[in-house]
Amino acid sequence: MKAYALTTGPLQENAYLVETPEGAVFIDPGDEPERLLALAEGAGLNPRAILLTHAHFDHVGAVAPLVEALGLPVFLHPLDLPLYERAAEVAARWGVLIPRPPREVEPLEEGMALFGFEVWHLPGHSPGHVAFLDREGRQVFSGDLLFRGGIGRYDLPGADPKALFRSLKRLLSLPPTTQVHPGHGPSTTLGLEARTNPFLTGLEWEA
Fold it and tell me: What is the pLDDT of residues 173-187, one digit of tens each?
C-alpha cells in the first residue's frame, strides 16, 4: 500500500490518502478538504471510503465536505460515536470551526478486514480508538496512540491511561520494522520507539 500524508489544520493533524488493493481511502481527514481532494486528484486516485482511527475534532474536520463531494461511507468504532456527534461543539470551544460530520457511519470492530487493513481496537486515548494494520506492507496507521518520541494523551474525556498502556504493549508486539504513521508528527518505526521513546523504555507494562 502506498500512503500519501498531508498535515492539516491548526493542530497539525496528519491526514492520509492510502492506495489499497481495494481502492483508495482517506484515513483521518482532519481539515482542509480542498487540499485532500487536490491530493487525490493529483495522485489519480478515486477514494472509496473514509476510515477514522477515532473521533476527536482534529481528525474529523474534513469528513462532511468529503462526504458531500464524493459520497463516501465513513467507518468509525461505535464507542467513539459520542465524541463524533459532539466534534463540532468541542472544536468551537477550542476556537476551531468545523462542519458537523454526517451522522451515518459504518461500524468498525476488532479484527475486521477492511480495504486490505486489519482493524485493531486500541483504546486509551479514546474509548473507540483503532489502528489500521497493513501486515503485508509492515505499516500501521496508529492515530493518536503512538508518536515519534511520545504517546497519546490520556487526560481527555473518555480516556483511560491503563487501557492506553495495554494498547501500546499490544502495538509493540508487531515486528520492530513496522512503520508507524501517526496522527501527528513524523513517521517512525516500532523498533525505534521501543528503544528511544521515553514513555516506552523501562515501562511497567502491568500498569
Answer: 999 999 999 999 999
Q: Is the CB of residue 121 less than 8 Å from the CB of residue 130?
A: yes
Which of 17, 95, 26, 84 lies closest to 57, judged by CA?
84
| Sequence letter at residue 9 | G
Alpha helix positions (H), 54-103 = 57-60, 63-70, 81-85, 87-93
Nearest of 103, 102, 105, 152 to residue 126 by alpha carbon: 152
User: Which CATH fold would you assign to the domain 2-196?
Assistant: Metallo-beta-lactamase; Chain A (3.60.15)
Supply the angle between the helices 33-43 and 63-70 in degrees, to the nearest 10: 50
Burial 82-121 (b: 16+ CB within 10 A, else e): ebbeebbebbeeeebebbebbeebeebeeeeebbbbebbb
Place of cell 512503520: 179
Task: Render pLDDT for 143-172 as a digit per residue (tens, 0 to 9).
Answer: 999 999 999 989 888 889 999 999 999 999
Q: What type of residue sits at position 203? A: L
Q: pLDDT tens for residues 56-104?
A: 999 999 999 999 999 999 999 999 999 999 999 999 998 999 999 998 9
pTM exceeds 0.85, yes or no = yes
- Contact, 144 vs 51, CB < 8 A? no
H or E element at residue 49: strand 49-51
